[in-house]
Amino acid sequence: MDNISIQLSFYIESKGYKAIPIPSDEPYEYWDSQNRHGRAILSLKHLAQLSGLGFIDKNTLLKERGCFKP
Q1: In the chain, what are the domain boundaries?
Q2: DSSP readout, 25-67?
Q3: From first to last of its 70 residues, what are the pLDDT tens digits of the chain?
């Protein structure tokens, strides 16, 4: 996913726009090394919901629009 993100950013920039690839697993704003749990600066799940790709269901999974009705 990170390689696709980088290639897509290069493509967008070649068209004259600005783009920044966001790593899928970092950067972490907070990391609890004891529990091996991190909290990212950007939630990719929430970003997908904001872009209209789906919705976050009550079980916190992203579901595509059209497959299930919220």
Answers
A1: 2-64
A2: S--EEEEETTTTEEEESS-HHHHHHHTTSEEE-TTS-EEEBTT
A3: 778 888 999 999 999 999 888 776 666 666 777 776 667 777 778 888 998 888 898 888 888 876 555 5
